Amino acid sequence: MSMIVGFLVCDATSGAILRLGTWDDEDLASMAGEGEVVVQVDAAVPVDPVSQVYDFETEALVDVIPSAPPDDEWATWSWDAVLGRYVATPTLAALKRDAILPVQRQIETVERAQVRPTSAIVLALLASETPDAGDVTQLTTLETDKTGLRDFRTEIEAAATVEALNALLDP
């Protein structure tokens, strides 16, 4: 009867952990491909393939900091030693994008609400009638609301720092 044990399949050069798990010891020979090495590990020891490699000289797992993901328009990355992972921090552009989306949705909601009073006013004018005062008031109020939302969106777009953006969003 064969015994189930914990193993790592590592890159034979770098020690990078490619796969980990338990396999029947009879299957070990088939687990490693070219340029790979199978290493038995203590099942009680936690293994993190992202922040550890296998050191063939010391025959132990070693903590490493892997290469960072590339920064881009939406995020910068920094290593969090407690998590053992890179953590994304949104850029000002990403924060602005996220702040503008709900404002844009509100603008679009107001624009949809303008259709009914606008239609009623146009139909009254085409019939050479005086538009209903309620429709005019509603349309004027909606246009004022939309102007305020557009101004707010412009302020968000113009924010030069995260602090300035936060001041707009959390007055």
Summarize the structure in short.
The longest helix is centred in the last third of the chain and has 26 residues, at 133-158. Helices cover 42% and strands 25% of the residues. It is elongated and about 90 Å long.
Q: What secondary-structure arrangement, pairings included, does this model have?
A:
Layout: E1 4-11, E2 17-24, H1 28-31, E3 36-41, E4 52-55, E5 60-63, E6 75-80, E7 85-90, H2 92-113, H3 115-126, H4 133-158, H5 162-169
Antiparallel strand pairs: 1-2, 1-3, 4-5, 6-7
Helix pairs in contact: 2-4, 3-4
Folded structure, characterized:
It is a single chain. This protein has helices spanning 28-31, 92-113, 115-126, 133-158, 162-169; strands spanning 4-11, 17-24, 36-41, 52-55, 60-63, 75-80, 85-90. It has five helices and seven strands. With 171 residues, the chain is α+β, with helices and mostly antiparallel strands. Strands 2-1-3 form a three-stranded antiparallel sheet. The model has no long low-confidence stretch (mean pLDDT 90). The longest helix is centred in the C-terminal third of the chain and has 26 residues, at 133-158.
Unreliable runs, pLDDT <50, ≥5 residues?
Answer: none
Residues in helix, %: 40-55%
Question: Strand content of the residues, in percent?
Answer: 15-25%
Terminus-to-terminus distance: 70 Å
The tally of strands reads 7
Spell out the helices and strands N to C: EEHEEEEEHHHH
Compute the average pLDDT. Answer: 90
Largest beta sheet: what is the strand line-up?
2-1-3
Describe the sheet with the most strands.
3 strands, antiparallel
Task: Please count the helical segments.
Answer: 5
Evaluate the radius of gyration: 31 Å
What global shape is seen? Answer: elongated
The SS-based structural class is alpha+beta
